[in-house]
Design brief:
single chain; 371 residues; alpha/beta; two-stranded antiparallel ribbon
Length: 371
Amino acid sequence: MSNRLTVHKDGREIYDIVMENSFERLGAEVSRLLVAERRLCIVTDSCVAPLYLESVREQLRLSCRQVDSFTFPEGEEHKNLDTVRSLYEYLIQARYDRNDMLVALGGGVVGDLCGFTAATYLRGIPFIQIPTTLLSQVDSSIGGKTGVDFDAYKNMVGAFHMPSLVYINTAVLNTLPDEQLVSGMGEIVKHGLIRNREYYHWMKEHSRRIITRDLSVCEELILESDRIKRDVVEQDPTEKGARALLNFGHTLGHGVEKLMNFQMLHGQCVAVGCAGAAYISFRRGYIREEELADILHTLKQFGLPVSLAGTGLVPEQILAATKNDKKMDSGRIRFILLHEIGEAYVDRTVTDEEMLDAVRWLMEEPGQTRL
């Protein structure tokens, strides 16, 4: 099995997204980057390293002069400038130069941190993404957005820095914890809602095979999500326009994520945010009540939360948290709403009252006054 998508910028080929069902072709793909005389440093975390570091190192040794590795503790709480500083120090002491390359082996935390380091070390060196979670395979590894958290503010320090290659091994899904698979579905359902109604209905029809990790179905799932993300990124590489659509569910979701101190996974927070954004779309008369109910059912079908009941969060605090989000535009939030399922748009007129109404609705117990 092999699938390849090429990402362009200004009509020029920038990098390939390669999908395989093992690491066996990783060395050959990296060799295409002409790295025979380069050193590669694998950046990974303490969760992924025992599973895949040696397999990846073995493959990379076939394509370059030397392979090193840097491992940091797993978890969002380590996606910060302190970890970046430690990685800078490692690279400086090892005398890495602009001809060398970093390799992000892990989920979104690893990819974001490694990408940011690559963007800023010596004013920029190349890097490769090898995403090992479903969420990173369909979202964070594609598009060149890198960054780290600053205190409790998510991704507030970052840079756009395109990878040289994204290599996806779908077999890693077999070792993925259930909650991480569910988290990835938060971004995938979002893709269908904002861009492709048929894809949204297809994933509902194949939900059981997705949940049980039928890799033939998961490959189709990942490929279509990657295609959607690729097409949006090509249209708007630096998030000046259409790329903002990918933030559907993220405005409220990031507020929840911050206040929960990252105890809810990113995709779970996005799912709650999608439910809230769909509710506002319904209240504005864009989608019908039965469509809102269908969106909630679909999210729940994949084990994703659609309620904040029992979290102890305060609606006004969530609203305040959204004001610190990087999606602010001249003091106003760029909120993503649905004209219909499969068609999202950027709205700058969503009021604080509308957001508070949505959050209060999310606070209600499912099955009571909620749909």
